[in-house]
Amino acid sequence: MSETAWQVVAMVIYLGGMLFIGWYSWRRTHNLNDYMLGGRDLSPPVAALSAGAADMSGWLLMGLPGAIYAAGLIEAWIAIGLTVGAWLNWKYVAPRLRAYTEVANNSITVPSFLENRLRDRSRLLRIVSGLIILGFFTFYVSSGVVAGGVFFEQSFGMNYHTGLLIVAAVEVAYTLFGGFLAVSYTDFVQGLLMMVALIMVPLLGIFAIGGFGGLADSISAADAAEGLNRLSMVPSPMDGAAIVAIISNLAWGLGYFGQPHIIVRFMALRSADEAKAGRRIGIGWMILSVMGAMATAMVGLAYFQQHAGQTLGDPEAVYLRMGQILFHPLVAGFMLAAVLAAIMSTVSSQLLVTSSALVEDIYKVLNKEPKNDSHYVLLGRMAVLGVSLLAIALAWTQNDTIMGLVKFAWAGFGAAFGPLVILSLYWRKLTSQGALAGMITGAAIVGFWGTMRGNKVGGIFDLYEMVPGFLLCWLVTWLVSRATYRENPEIQAEFDEQVRITDAFEKGKVLKDPQTA
Q1: Which residues neighbour 194 within 8 Å (Cβ) at sequence distance 6 or greater?
Q2: Bridge partners of residue 381, in order along the sequence
Q3: Are 191 and 52 in contact (CB under 8 A)?
Q4: pTM for this one?
């Protein structure tokens, strides 16, 4: 068999496995709670790896190694910011959010939780939240579909549109039928595949370049030829622009607190107590994967320095090329599948959250006539299909500006929802008016700041829009809440209940029924 044929076999096995998981999850999905939140029955390993896989996308296997390959460890500040942000999210948000969403009328989405937590009778908070999620994620999904089309185009020489349709068809199939369980289980498998691939490439690569001595000598030679110092994390000179760049990269970690497709995994845990195990597994996975991505870049740099006859071309292809060089074509095919897994895990999570926003947070609010669960599940599946078709239409003409919205959307969600999630869990005096004002402020600042990038007003607009958006959302939320706060005994009782539950878990007491224990 040819090299391409082996790789196609691996890809067919991978895609078939994803469809099988979708079928298995469909058999276990019986109501809306199952479809949107998996019946709150995720184990810590599944929750942890699915959250990580949904977060990282193709950046982990292509973007990060490519950046390290081209510029060195100075690009690692984003990875540090993300790792710290993920740990803080698991430590301080996960257990309280799991407990509070169940206490607050068994909320199954972030917008419904905010409405129930703050007793917002106007329904504006829930509708605006749902619209923000719908708007950002439609383009976010589209960018992932574009990435899938480009993947098949570059890896197999396939027509861009054919690759796009293959990715979209498989993702829609398992997400539409299997819902949250399918997304979580496929993300778990995809997360394992990504981590193993990122460990194996540098592990075998180090032998191919003559061990650690060959690695150091080759990196030094490459740096000398290009006038770089790839092993330094501190830019030279350390001027104002460099400081802004480091702060901007670290600020990516702030985005975790407001990403609906990530924090929904916390809500789906079997209990708040399991957040501790989820944190250890998730952060362990993240550290191994990020270190593997950086090691892949350095080993790849050394390899191509030693083998001048082989050219890399695009630095972001270093993981793919090293996989093809080091492994049998069948194994290299699974290495390619890991990239597709990174793309698909993110897109499927975003599809489901967008579907839940349409059904749970917009349709059910506007249509007050109650329906049975089967009706809402059907609508959820139709929403997945509808959003997918819109995303395909947006992605049909390959457009780099759509891909650029990934960074913008991460900042938008982080600034619009991050402060509200934290304050809702830790501050009794948060109000619906304050939350609505802060949410709008955060989203608006991110939009304004992004359009001003490149404006040389002291270089301030080069700062990642996450920073001003997050801080101003927090400030406006606090000011308006202080001005509009009126004590509500029901809200106070629920707040006390979730504090009691999480405190009990932290002290090692297991409460079997957080509602009544």
Answers
A1: 53, 56, 60, 61, 289, 338, 341, 342
A2: none
A3: yes
A4: 0.88
Cβ contact 156:148 at 8 Å:
no
The domain spans of the chain are: 3-27+41-506
**How would you classify residue 372: left for phi > 0, otherwise alpha for psi between -120 and 50, otherwise beta?**
beta
Residue owning tokens 């992932």:
144
Q: Which helix (H) or strand (E) holds 127?
A: helix 124-156
Provide Rg for the chain, Cα atoms. 23
Identify the burial level of 71 via C-beta atoms within 10 angstroms of its C-beta, where 0-12 means exposed, 13-18 middle and 19 or more buried. middle
| Contacts (Cβ under 8 Å, ≥6 apart) of 132 | 412, 413, 416, 417, 439, 443
Q: Residues 6 or more apart from 351 whose CB is under 8 A from it? A: 137, 141, 171, 172, 175, 183, 384, 387, 388
Q: What is the pLDDT of residues 64-90, one digit of tens each?
A: 888 899 888 988 998 999 999 999 999
Alpha-carbon distances of 270 from 24, 41, 109, 283, 502, rounded to whole Å: 20, 5, 16, 19, 14
Distance (Å, rounded) from C-alpha 468 to C-alpha 256?
A: 16
Q: What is the DSSP string of 157-195?
A: ---HHHHHHHHHHHHHHHHHHHHHHHHHHHHHHHHHHHH
Task: Report the C-alpha gap between 319 and 202 in whole angstroms.
Answer: 9
CATH code of domain 3-27+41-506:
1.20.1730.10
Contact of 78 with 294, CB cutoff 8 Å: no
Q: Is the peptide bond before 468 cis (omega within 30 degrees of 0)?
A: no
Helix H or strand E segment including 441: helix 432-452
Q: Are 362 and 127 in contact (CB under 8 A)?
A: yes
Here the tokens at position 118 are 């703050």
Query: What does the pLDDT look like over 322-381, one tens digit per residue?
Result: 988 899 889 888 888 888 887 887 888 888 888 888 888 888 888 777 777 788 888 888
Q: Would you give the distance in Å from CA 355 to the centre of its chain?
A: 17
At which residue do the structure tokens 């406006």 appear? 476
